[in-house]
Specification:
Layout: E1 16-18, H1 20-25, E2 31-36, H2 46-60, E3 68-73, H3 76-88, E4 92-96, H4 102-110, E5 114-117, H5 124-130, H6 135-145, E6 153-155, H7 163-179, E7 186-190, H8 195-207, E8 212-218, E9 259-263, H9 265-279, H10 285-298, E10 307-312, H11 331-346
Parallel strand pairs: 2-10, 3-4, 3-6, 4-5, 7-8, 7-10, 8-9
Antiparallel strand pairs: 1-2
Length: about 350
């Protein structure tokens, strides 16, 4: 018999799937593989770091009965933390962006999490505005001015917690190596905190130094800022190559990456919709961005015949209310809306 005693035993060991029909549709002369992270118990790769951060805190004595776990997150890390906290008997509080999908709020609530939208934190909107949307600076302000002033809390702080990339060094990287028998040429993943590609890439490059690591970040029209605050973001994906060093999470090791590919939100949506119809997998926005980047990388003549592993971070089920798979909302409409917002911000008249 194989009977597990807790969801913590179900984290990791996700399957690697060859995307045959997607590759055929676009005439890709590569071996395109997808690491399906939605096979984790809470349907995203963030289960790995949630478990890693919680167990590291338990070993260090920072987390024990009576202590409340706290983090600020775009959603998936919060869901993983909420589920594992529930399974271990801890309370969990999460600070969330108000614009996240309804599904994420509902799931967190189901796990018993205390949910605090950013709009309910006094002064936080101004911090976001003053920092031009810098999520690293905003998280630090929230920690220093709100979270760490309370007793009996442990702030997991995924942006700086070394247990974040270590989770991928000890699990995701070894799994990819074992599943491919070391026959892998390129690995592509999106960057949020950077822990996925940093930890996975560090492990793989130690075994195969010439492996190529491709990091995916949002294109210029998919990055909200002071001039274009309503830009359509790719949930959980953040720019890092064009920002100041202090705006880059400490969990991101930029020295490991061989290339950075920018993907716009409508391109991510397009790829997610395409692979749903070609290979029957339902993926989230960030995974769509990774798949779009993989398609472009695969088309290069120098990559003919190579094996490309894409890390697809989560399920599309938590995006159904966002229009990601809405047949009434065409890719062209999404693109036009994004560009119109961008251009409207660009050509605002300045009074003399």
């Amino acid at each position: 018999m194989t009977i597990h005693n807790a969801i913590t035993e179900l984290v990791g060991n996700t399957p690697l799937l060859r995307l045959n029909r997607f590759g055929q549709q676009f005439q890709l002369n590569v071996d395109l593989l997808a690491k399906l992270e939605y096979f984790n118990p809470n349907h995203s790769i963030k289960d790995r770091i949630a478990l890693s951060m919680i167990e590291a805190a338990e070993r260090s004595g920072q987390l024990k009965p009576g202590v409340t776990l706290v983090d600020t997150t775009s959603g998936n890390t919060g869901i993983g933390l909420a589920a594992i906290a529930a399974a271990k008997g801890y309370k969990f509080r999460v600070y969330l962006h108000d614009k996240l999908s309804a599904e994420r709020f509902a799931i967190l609530s189901a796990f018993g999490a205390e949910i605090i939208p950013f709009s309910q934190v006094p002064g936080f909107d101004k911090i976001l505005e003053d920092s031009d949307g810098d999520f690293v600076a905003a998280a630090k302000w929230l920690a220093e001015n709100v979270i760490l002033k309370e007793p009996n809390v442990f702030f997991t702080y995924q942006l700086e917690n070394p247990a974040n990339p270590q989770a991928h060094y000890h699990s995701t990287g070894p799994e990819i190596w074992q599943q491919t028998a070391g026959q892998v040429d390129i690995v592509i993943a999106s960057v949020g905190t950077g822990g996925t590609l940093s930890g996975t890439g560090k492990y793989l490059k130690q075994l195969k130094p010439d492996i190529k690591l491709i990091a995916v970040e949002p294109g210029i029209h998919s990055i909200p800022d002071r001039e274009n605050p309503d830009a359509k973001e790719i949930t959980g994906v953040h720019a890092f190559s064009t920002v100041l060093p202090e705006r880059v999470p400490l969990t991101l090791d930029r020295e490991l990456f061989d290339e950075v590919v920018s993907v716009e939100s409508w391109q991510a949506v397009q790829a997610a919709r395409e692979v749903a119809t070609t290979d029957g997998i339902l993926i989230g926005e960030s995974s769509g961005a990774v798949l779009y980047a993989a398609r472009e990388i695969a088309r290069r003549p120098e990559n003919r015949g190579k094996r490309i592993v894409t890390i697809l971070a989560d399920s599309g089920l938590t995006y159904l209310s966002t229009g990601l798979y809405d047949p009434q909302l065409s890719i062209e409409q999404i693109k036009v809306q994004a560009l119109l917002k961008s251009r409207a911000a660009e050509f605002v008249e300045t009074p003399f």
